[in-house]
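Ex. 9. Protein: DNA repair protein.
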Amino acid sequence: MTQLFNSKLCAVCKGRKLLCGRPTCPILERFRVAKRVEERLNKRHLFGSSPPSIFVGEYGYPKVRIGPLVPPIEGNTSHLDNPLKWENNTIKDILYYRSLLVMGETTADIHVRRSGRILGEVQELAMSIRPVDSEILLKRKPVFKVLPSEFAPPIGPKAELLDFELTENPKIPRRTDYVVSDELKAEQAIMRLYNWGFDEYYIIRLLSAGLLGLDKKLVPTRWSITAVQDTIGNNLRREILSYPEINDYEVYFYEFLGNRYAILLMPESYAFELLEVWLKGSLFGSEAPSVIHDYEDFRGRTGYVKETAGAYHAARLSVLEALRARGRQARIVVFREVTPKYYASVGVWQIRLGVKKAMENPVGRFSMLNEALEAIKRRLEHPFEKYLARSHILGSLARQKTLDEWLGKNLYRLTE
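Predicted C-alpha cells for DNA repair protein:
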C-alpha cells in the first residue's frame, strides 16, 4: 500500500495541478472544512446536542482514550453521526458534519467498573436514541485533525476533557435497559437488539461503551464495528444455509462516493468472496493496482480477514440481509473498485450502504455464467482477467469444470 500523500509531488502541485490524479486535493479539502468551522469551535466550553455520539480509541489498550462528541449546535443533530442518513450526501458534506463534532478525550480503563462519573455520563449518552443536550469543558481549544481510516467515520477537532455532563435526560428504550442489565453474552445481546430492529450503529455504540456482554469492557470503536457486523453476519450465514438456492445467475451494480460495487450471485451453495482494487489515483491506490481478496465457504472463517479488513464484513452483511429477506442462499462474489473520486476515507459504512444499494439495483438475471460476467466486466475499469485470476470462487469453478466448458472456450472474450 502506498503512502497517502507523496511529499515531493504535493510540493510541486500545491493542490492546484492535481498531479496525484484525484479530482479534489484531499489536503486542501480538509483545510477548507477546518476553516469553515473554526470560529464556531474556537473555545474551551461547549454546549450542544450530541447526536448522540461517542468514540473509543485503540491506542494504549487496555488504557484507552474515550470521550463524547458534542457539536456547538442545539436541536436535532442526529444527521451528524448517522450513516443511515448519508445516502444522498457528498464526501465534503460528511467531512463537514464530522468536523462539527468536538471530542473531549479522557483516559479510561477498559474495565468499566473501575471508572468514575464521566464514564457513567458517556454510557448514558451511548444508550440514548435521540440527541442529548450536553456540556463539555476542555483543557484547551480543540485541535482539528482528520485522520484517514477505513473503519470509523473521520474524527473532528478534539482536546483533553476536563468535565462532561448531560443537561437533560437521555431517551433510553426499555429494551436497551433490559439487555444492558441482563446477564447476556455479547453475541446474544447483539442479536437480540438486531432482531428487535435496532440498527447496527446503535449496537456498535453500546458495545464500545462497555454496556454489552457478561464481562463488560470498553471496546475501541474500530473493533466494535467489525465485531458487530461480523457477529450479525455469522448468524445470518447460519440461517440462510437452510434456504434453497437461487435459480439463475444474478448481477447487481451501484456506484457510491467514488466506489463501484458489482455483485454476482450464483445458483450454488453459500460461499462469499470480496475482490477489491484501489485504482491508480485513488486514496490508497498505486501505479500498478492489484486485486486483494478474502473468502469463506459455508463453514465461515476461522481467522481474521487478512486483506480486505472491515470492508469484508460490511459487504457480506449487506448481501446476507438481502438473501435472508428472500429466503434464499447463493454463492457470492462482490467486486469493489475504488476510483479517484473517493478522495477521503469516510469509514466502512459507505461499503455497507453501497453494497446494500447495489442489492436494490439489479442489472439482470442470466442463465449462463459467461453472460453474467460480461455484464460485470462492462461496468468495471480494472482488467477483468486480473479479477478472475485472483478469485478463489471463480478459479475454483474453473478447476472443477463447472462452467459448462465456458472458461475454456470463451475466456479470451473477458480478457480482450
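Check your answer against this statement. Residues 249-415 form one domain.
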